[in-house]
Amino acid sequence: MIDDELRALATRRVILFGGKGGVGKTTIATHAATLFGEKAILFSSDPANESFDAHALYQRFLDQNLDQFLEIGDRGTYLDRDELRRFFELSLPGVDELMAWMHIGELAENNPEKIIVVDTAPTGHTLRMLSSSEHFQQFARALDAMQAKHRAMVQQFTRRASRDAVDAFIEDFDARAKRYRSYVDTFIPVTLSEPWVVEQTLRLIHQIDGEIGAIDVPFVVLNRAVHDIDCDLDRERAKRDDAARARFVPRNVVDFERSCVPLWSGAAAASAVEPSRESGGRSGRRSTTLTFFAGKGGVGKTTCASALALQLAKKERVTLLSVDPAHSLRDVFAHEPPPPNLSVEMIDTKRKWRELRDTLGTEIERAMEALTPGGMTIGYDTEAMQQLIEIAPPGADELFAITRLADLTAGDTRVVVDTAPTGHFLRLLDLPQQAGEWVREFMRLLLRYKDLVPPGSLGEELVRASRALKVLDETLHSDRASVIVVTRPEPVVVAETKRLIDTLKQRGISVGGLIANYVTPQNECKCDQTMRGYELEALEGLEVTQRIERRAAPPVSLVELSTIVSFA
């Protein structure tokens, strides 16, 4: 019983529920928090959740730490306080993950008698959040490298070692990051029995065990497990459940049984519900050269994006780009290569950051040599900057995705984009302007110090990036780009879908269609027919372009995949 397994975790400090979008993380996390009662604090780290305000948390973080950061930067860099302040106050890519991790640590530290239950964002972004400890510790090392220059200069002139309040601040900052990391002691993956979901969940567990480490994975939750079999379809689903359980051996798998009455029940009976009518519009307009598929995690964005790309590739060159760090596309094309006209790309953030870091490292050394009289303190200057660029920031996935999109939109290839879930997708749309602000700030600094630091390749790259970002932002707000929104027939998903569509319209971004995916079909299963009634009611009021009914099994070939939805 899942309740018995959860009660056994009552002494843990922080329990995270994670997995692919749409597997039921929120349901299981809420169930666990309810089971723990007053001892639990439930927190959602998903930016799509309206209660999570990462920017407010970041502002509070700056209010608490900015003065010390500016003092350290003033001591250890060639930038003045106003220049440093502008950088800190710019929108920070990846702030959602950094602030979520920090807030979880604060909750655990300030509530030692409580269990912090975390409903996480989908896979890729949760892994980035869990790596935030290293980012904070890396930043502490960079701060210490800057302060080391100050210590050396004080010792040189006073002939004695000196430590002050800044050293104490850096030590506390680093110690806090280590404490917060130690509180996160439990991760519970949630999965469905669908093959693609199982594969991604296995990768997630492998990364938790390997790259993250020191976090216990006591069991896996198999959500919507079929126990009450009343038809042939249920028997097939039960077999698929068994196959999924076998993939996780020897790890313990705990079932969370499906319900034939949804959690939002209280709606009218199925017999009283008429199917919502599909609108006459068609998605995937020919004038569009850049098409995003967006929506809540688990709605089927990857499936629909792949279907459109496969259809378009029959008559033109297409690039299918994944900007979701979980990269579900790898499962779609794992056993069958794409057709000749279709290029499938996934951003390898670690590799690209290594390349950028190596390039920046050379530029930094050259700049420090130019700035430092006689090279007297170049070791400290270079070390501080190298520490800052050592590891990829949490928002690096989106940064590299935006630069790749800028390159692709400059060509003649049709581009289809499989995006991250809602909150991170909206962050991606903001990046051309936000990254442009960073680029302009760097260019301003290069111009200010042009007599000391020749612009070189870094300056040329900044100019190129500035132009490309401007063109991409113009494309996003033109008829060359559109967003096809994918939803599922559940009130929580539909509510998020409506907010997404409203937000896109407010930003002047075209909505090219709305697909209702995973609708339960008419069949002989009593449980399915009950659910179908609730689902159709949930979709009422949406201008659905197309409806995709749930299949008994996922598509097994690219040909089958290309036919699940029509974009003619």
Q: Could you describe the 3D structure shown?
A:
The structure is a single chain. The chain is built from 20 helices and 13 strands. The chain folds into two domains: about 1-255, 3-Layer(aba) Sandwich (Rossmann fold), CATH 3.40.50.300; about 270-560, P-loop containing nucleotide triphosphate hydrolases (Rossmann fold, 3-Layer(aba) Sandwich), CATH 3.40.50.300. Residues about 265-285 have low confidence and may be disordered. The chain is of the alpha/beta class. A seven-stranded parallel β-sheet has the order 9-8-10-7-11-12-13, sandwiched between helices. It has a six-stranded parallel β-sheet with strand order 2-3-1-4-5-6, with helices on both faces.
Q: In short, what is this structure?
A:
The protein has 568 residues and is of the alpha/beta class. 53% of the residues lie in helices and 13% in strands. It has 20 helices and 13 strands.
